[in-house]
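Before any further analysis, we paired sequence with structure tokens, yielding the entry below:
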Amino acid sequence: MNPEIKLRKSEIEDRNRIWEIIQQSIERRRQDGSTQWQNGYPNLGTVESDIAKGFGHVLTVDGEIAVYGALILNDEPAYSTIEGAWLSDGEFVVVHRVAVDEKFAGQGMVKKFFDHIEEFTKSHDIQSIKVDTNHDNIAMLKILEGRGYSYCGEVLLRDGMRKAFEKIII
């Protein structure tokens, strides 16, 4: 029997579970030798803010949270300055803070999360998806490459330069 996989907005009741998943991801990044997420960000306050603003989304498998991420429409001030060039200047979805529960790691759930984001983007007639990641986050770099995202250049976020990617959806 196939599991039921859904994307939904996260709710305040999800915050502790989401924070546990992010902490797992912070530790995985550290073990992989990545500098991403090693400076106190993201934190529980970030999760609570995402939920309050309606940005937080979870991919559930049979009702259990497998992946968390923030989906932000047309708003990432750091993306206004890029060393390089975006593919488009229309409406976009920004994807931030993607974290997978270690129970679901290696099962393609982040790819499914991006599939659902693409469906969401299409259904809302939004032109593209933009995302950034650290130069040493090999897992996310492979996912973005495999999903057809184009490298657009570098953007400066609070903790340094990040590789920026975009995928045209419509």
Summary: The chain has a mean pLDDT of 95. The first helix runs from residue 15 to 31.
